[in-house]
Amino acid sequence: MPPIHRRDQAMPLRTLLVHGDADSQMPVRMSLATDVARRHHAKLLVIFALQGRSAAFLYAQHAPADVVSRQIRAERLRAARIGARLADRAARAGIGLAWRAIEGRPDTVLAQQAAAADMLVLSQDSDDAASPLVAPVTLAAGKPVLCVPRGGPFASCGRRVLLAWNGSREAARAAHDARPFLRQAERVILFTADDETSAGTSAEDAASHLAADGISVEIQRAPLNRRDPGQAILGAASDHGVDLVVMGAYGHSRLREWAFGGATRTVLRSMAVPTLLSY
Is residue 156 a contact partner of residue 32, using CB atoms and an 8 Å limit? Predict the structure, then answer.
């Protein structure tokens, strides 16, 4: 039976680490992270991964040294401008924000810096992403990841929560990591597929444990009927109008690259609301 963590081990949210970049989804994930930080009295840490120097090694033979040097300086300057702008906006909103620019691949940098935060905030990978972030960061960081769907914005996150439950260690970890959200939620649905539950903790025992921490949950069951468990989770989230899905992440290392298992991959490919992943 996978352990369900003691209530005094559930830590509050104090620091949210946000992936800093100049991509089109940066305003969406910053908006959501700011809203979560405000509700939980947390601060924000924005991490920019600088790849200019590593790119210089790849293209040094094809580009003059002064061109490469200018690209590196421009990347640092861009991160500094974005970081300063974000810090100013956060200060006006009464939220503490610090930012750092660190050289390295984004997945490596974010996973390494996760030790300085309670949760990471990343955007959903695009279908054609050359270097996906969510899988390698979630499976290597050792901290929960709040994945924000592309598009947005989102009016709320964590008021109506669907907790996907199959009795596994990963599900128990997700329930533990989501405690700050579950305690503030107006409604928590513990969703389980009768033919998917493992030999671990039952939905009733999980609900009883959460109730001991003052978290009231509704148990909802649905048969898979040969559906992918991920599709069942997506359907339940839509049916109940939730604004946050919480689930355990399942993954493995393949050819030195981290990859998600089927249900997790299905949810993240078609997600419509923010999803909290724990591994």
Answer: no
